[in-house]
Design goal:
The complex is a heterodimer. Chain A is an all-alpha fold. Chain A is built from 13 helices and no strands. The chains are: A mainly alpha, B mainly alpha. At the A-B interface, α1, α3, α4, α5 and α6 of A face α1, α3, α4, α5 and α7 of B. Chain A: It holds the Pfam family BPD_transp_1.
Chain lengths: 270, 275
Amino acid sequence: MRSSRPGPVILILATAVALFLLMPLVAVVPVSFTPARFLSMPTGTLSLRHYQALIENPAWAESILLSLRIGILSSFIATLLATLFGLGIWMYQPRFSALLIGFVLLPLIVPPVVSAMTLYFLMTALSAFNNWIGYDTWIGVALAHAVMITPFAVVLILVSLYQVDRRIDLAARGLGANLATRAFRVIVPNIRFGIATAALLSFVLSWEEIGVTLFITSINAITLPRLMWMGLRDNIDPAIAAISVLLIIVTALILGVRMIVERRRPNDAQ
Amino acid sequence: MIAKPSGKFLLLAPLLLFLGLAYAVPFLGVVRWSFTLPEPGIGQYKAVFSDPLVRSVFLRTLRICLIVTVASLLAAYAIAYVWVRGTRTQRMLAEFCILVPFWISVLTRAFGWLALLSNRGLINTWLQAAGIIGSPLALARNELGVIIGMTHFLIPFAVFPIASAMRSIDERVLLAARGMGASRSRIFWTVFVPLTYGGLIGAALIVFVFALGFFVTPAILGGGRSVMVAELVYLRIFQSPDWGLGAAISVILVLFIAALLALMRRFIKPAHLIG
């Protein structure tokens, strides 16, 4: 198989990089147990007061529920649109595919601060017409997140579509299946793992989104990252460490599940 | 008579319409702001190029982005090598170390660096306890902190294109080099590394472009002292409401990135953008 395994030099370098990558994630753990009211290392005694604060201060629970709601709606929109788009690209291979894909990837490539201004413009314009969708509303945030996370969903779905054997679709067409049958009963079942991954990961991205959220919310739609940002900017609140530890555990679990599922389905997606 | 919409249209149109209406059209609105706020004309663009403060922010941004790009590429190359060519266990460990930080919130990661680098953070506490330093080192809330935090954020983005280039190397080329008596280091430097140049350039572009437009990590780890261009936009909008200048800087950023990507587009593959 491989002619040469990594030598000692590169293994040492890679270990250093791995430690660098994990270091800040590990560092939040001791800080979250500090008995002090400011960001500091615990010396001697440990305390759970910052975890307690997460439970006692209703702002945390409210923002978690809000972020869940926004994440579910926006990842649903993103996954649905990305799946349809991916199917269109894969089944018809339109002449300007590269251009179309480039266009839908724009929110990923354009600097976040520019996307944030753009979506602020959109939200204030929508607010002029209604109270439900627009600046500082949860549906507005969900829509803005959908814009930002759709490119990720598109890439994930295209990657898994490119691994589907075209002859399956040809066979279905030869047997007289119409478009809907080909798309949803033949192709979609073959990329269901890719679609599930896209939904899960776009949820995570919405759940964590801060750049755009900062611009389009003020006092009503305080998502979890927005609340964390507020605690990070002024006086650093160690409750941020406690919530960070919980978030790291949840993310690691989601990724772990994804890796296990992937290992069990080696032929589908990625 | 209405023609029945084709399947192609039905599948492609929803997303294109959604992004057209929710992204492309509002972006034109931002472009209009840059020419109309606070008064019509190209005054804001003139201000961007003549204001010494804005110019120094642009220069600092370029400097930080270049340092961060080089640092991320070097780090990514080492860990990508192990991820692609290591033993089974090494590959899994490398994958874990790349993907977990990638999927963890940028806020959590920036906070983690504050916990390590700030005056009462892990590193300063330990160094002081060990008696190595008397007063805390200034590691965060300055340019150093920004560079560390951004490099950490961008390493995974650099890993994906590099790893993909490494995976597509034909093993027989390396075997041939060995068969002709080349040493390990000679194979690495004269055969392996040149075959990954495409991936390296793609990685450099992605990292550089992302670094240019990034404002969350610099805002937290720079502590307002080491402002980069994206943070300047944010500050202009929220602290000294100056939407026109923010919009003009945004337009310039987008044009710059578009030109960069147009020049180098053959090095970018969409699948490289995510894990």
